[in-house]
Amino acid sequence: MTMKHIFTISLTLIALQTAFSQSKIDLAGRMLIDEYKRIEAGDTHAIIDPRLQELSLSRGSAAPVIGVIVTLNPEYTAEDILINDAISYTSTFDNTVVAQIPADMIETVANLEAVNHLSMGQKRNVAMSFARPLGEVTKVQQGTDLQQPYNGTGVVVGLMDTGLDPNHINFTKPDNVEVSRVKAVYAYASNTGRPTSSATTAEAIKSFTTDMNTSTHGTHVIGIAAGGYKGNGNYGLSGKVYNETAMPFYGVATESDIVMTGGNLYDANIIDGVTKCIEYAESVGKPVTVNLSLGSMMGPHDGSSDICNKLAALGKRGIICIATGNDGGNNIAMSMRGGLGASLNNNVVGVSYGTSSSNPYTVQFWSNNSDEFKMDFILYDPTTKTVSYSLEIPNLNGSTMGIGGSSMGSSYIKDDKFNAAFTANSYSIFSSQVEANDRYSVIAQFKLNRDNNSDYSLMPAFRISRSRGQVVTGNISTPDNNTLGQFTKETGSGWTDMTWTYTTVNDNGTVSDMATGENIIAVGAFTSAQYFTLSDGSLYSYNGATPVGSICEFSSYGTNTVTGEVLPHVCAPGSAIVSSLSNYYIGNIDLAGTTGGNGRSNKYGPMQGTSMATPFVTGVMGLWLQADPTLTVSEAKDIIKQTATPYTGSDSNLKVQWGAGKINAYEGIKEVLLRKAATGTVVADQMQWLVLPATDGYDVVAPGAESIEASLYDVQGRCVTTAAARGCELRLTTAFLPAGIYILRASSSSSSHTSKLLIQ
Predict the structure, then answer these.
(1) CA distance linking residue 339 with residue 326, whole number of Å
(2) Rounded distance between C-alpha atoms, residue 297 and residue 507, angstroms
(3) Which of 191, 398, 405, 623 is most exposed by smallest CB count within 10 Å?
(4) Are residues 337 and 323 part of one domain?
(5) How many CB atoms lie within 10 A of CB 192?
(6) What is the DSSP-derived secondary structure letter of residue 135?
(7) With helix as H, strand as E and coil as C, how does 21-43 read?
(8) What is the C-alpha to C-alpha distance for residues 198 and 219, in angstroms, rounded to an integer?
């Protein structure tokens, strides 16, 4: 007997809200709200979103406060969403507000005229001695054939991560281990986008322990980007043990200032953390590069998600480097394209997953346009090649529906076939709508467990019917510490109401959604060392380690699904990298070295991943910014393309996986210096502008102009001085301004000019 029952409690409550709010909230956010409503209504439910699980909600308790990224309409400010005292906000920039809103008020805020769109985002996952020479960093640090060595002096390196230990000796001044280079630390223990603790003075930083003791990832990452300790220690290297010998495990931008932010990696926290890094750098008039060795498979992979948009805005104020991910070699990406007529119907993709999971897997499908596609959740029998059960998922306009086993609440659809295939606490929950990027999307979150009584002949899959020219892409995300979830595809002919021909499943598309946005540098990994040595001299290698100089098997890649941009932009050393470890980490990790000093024990150990490659590039950006503090992310990406060592083989997938190739810090900084030396004269329109240093500022010259005017803006967009003159020349006085980067905008009746000025 089959009984179908949509989440009537959820739908009734949603009906009380206007459809206007539904279109303003992304699918993941809608599912969180509906889940909260089911909890409050007393339904037997599955707590899918960890923000609700962590708060141990019970019926009738106060609504949890959620970190929400709010995009405002023009002419509105953050104050316009503060409709009562329960709502607050931390950071705000451009039209973006990182706000703290109780779950039961999110739809009310979405309905405000001031609000264009909002999202609650999701929780992201954290994705040297041999690396420096391979990336040509050593030559830069030594100043080989350059006017001077470059080490990150005058630059701020920031990060958002987990497991920070700001008092590791690696983050002190190379010439004085008693002085820390860490200028600020912010920890986020909740999901709200508001730091739960901070340290912004030398005394407070010295007393800070860690944001969380279950991780050391962030300490390792920032050690690669900016670690600078070169004093004596005990360590293993190349199968030998060295005692009281100069440590080789320092990073790239060894004398940069450091800002650390870390904790729970929710989108609101990430945005606020990156903002804190950039705002500190702006406050002291220094350029900044920020590392994000984290990401997620969920999202449209076209740069249009809220997290991408906000990072793109912040990327105009600093250079942000993001890891592509570590899912290379895994079939977690799929696409359906091509075909005509009947071949567009009943296109199927299957899934493999852990059948004893305590947390749900997530699959998200996207159309290439706003057209809906017909989708069914099916159970099929591969022996008979027939569909045994089918549940249609309509356009739910942001609402949810689900199917569940016998122990799940009455709001779940119940079916005998489903009960036969899975355990009583299994379920799959669906939501769908046209998202803010004008693309139709469907999310499925499922925990489909099996036991000895389960009918293993019934296999779960998703069946999609498309219109002509419509492309459907998708990704699957695995919960922490579970069997990898992957897409599957059957072969052969004779399938009834199932077509596998137009389904592609592979790892080309495994790039993190966060890495697909504008104004960021996406980084993949290649092997700089196959082996690492522990402090006792033992020599080890990671499983699947590729030969030195080749791409790491795990390095994620793909293309932006709308623009076609190839990602990563560049690759850097990411295998068997030894760097600093947090003293507070309670897990097990191999030790490659230790040193005293700074009044404590300091540990070093190996890790691998694009998480290690990304801070290498972040550190290189620190070196380049020292050479030219006005360098922008677009200029940096162009220099990377011009100077990286390219892949020259014929494998099309490897060509994508490599991006521009291997980062070359040395050739890159020479190009930076060359371009900087050539910027004394700028051509705009048909007139040649000159900006010439003067005793108390700059002379701005537009040959032949009858009159000109010029204004200078700080990096926050505020006009700090202006001047105008008849004729072709004026003096712009800057002697009274603090050191930093400024934007010059000048114009005449027939031409205009914009450039960056560094005032020291």
Answers:
(1) 32
(2) 12
(3) 405
(4) no
(5) 26
(6) T
(7) HHHHECHHHHHHHHHHHHHHCCC
(8) 17
Q: Which of 613, 644, 675 is the last residue of a domain?
A: 675
Contacts of 717 (CB under 8 A, 6+ apart): none
Q: Give the distance from CA 158 to its chain's centroid.
A: 14
Model pLDDT, residue 753: 84
How many Å apart are CA 470 and CA 459, to the nearest integer?
A: 26
Is the CB of residue 244 less than 8 Å from the CB of residue 232?
A: yes
Domain count, the chain: 4
Nearest to 693 by CA among 626, 760, 627, 746: 760
> What is the phi/psi pair of residue 627, to 5°?
-70, -35
For residue 167, give Cα distances in angstroms to 106, 194, 281, 603, 713.
39, 23, 20, 12, 36
Instruction: Decide if 286 contacts 253 (C-beta within 8 A).
Output: no
CB distance 474 to 368 below 8 Å: no
Q: What are the beta bridge partners of residue 473?
A: 335, 366
User: Which range is least confidently modeled, 258-262, 687-691, 717-721?
Assistant: 687-691
For residue 174, what are the CA distances in angstroms to 449, 509, 524, 598, 694?
Answer: 54, 42, 29, 12, 36
229 band by pLDDT with thresholds 50, 70 and 90: very high
From residue 674, alpha-carbon distances to 150, 632, 661, 667, 669 in Å are 15, 15, 22, 11, 8
User: Over the stretch 98-133, which tens digit does the pLDDT of each residue have?
Assistant: 999 998 899 999 999 999 999 888 777 665 444 555
Residue that terminates a domain, selected from 67, 84, 119: 119
Domain encompassing residue 22: 2-119
* Residue-wise DSSP of 328-367: TTS--EEEE----GGGGSSEEEEEE--TT-SS-EEEEEEE
Structure token digits, residue 94: 């451009």
Amino acid identity for residue 339 in this structure? G
The two three-digit tokens of residue 167, written as one number: 């008092």
- The C-alpha torsion from 100 through 104 and 106 to 108, rounded to 10°, is -130
Give burial (CB, 10 Å; 0-12/13-18/19+) of 506.
middle
Q: Are residues 424 and 488 in the same domain?
A: yes
10 Å CB burial of residue 735 (0-12, 13-18, 19+) is exposed
Does residue 687 surpass a pLDDT of 50?
no
Selected residue with higher pLDDT from 85 and 56 = 85
pTM: 0.83
The verdict on 53 and 190 lying in the same domain is: no
> Tokens 């749900």 map to which residue?
360
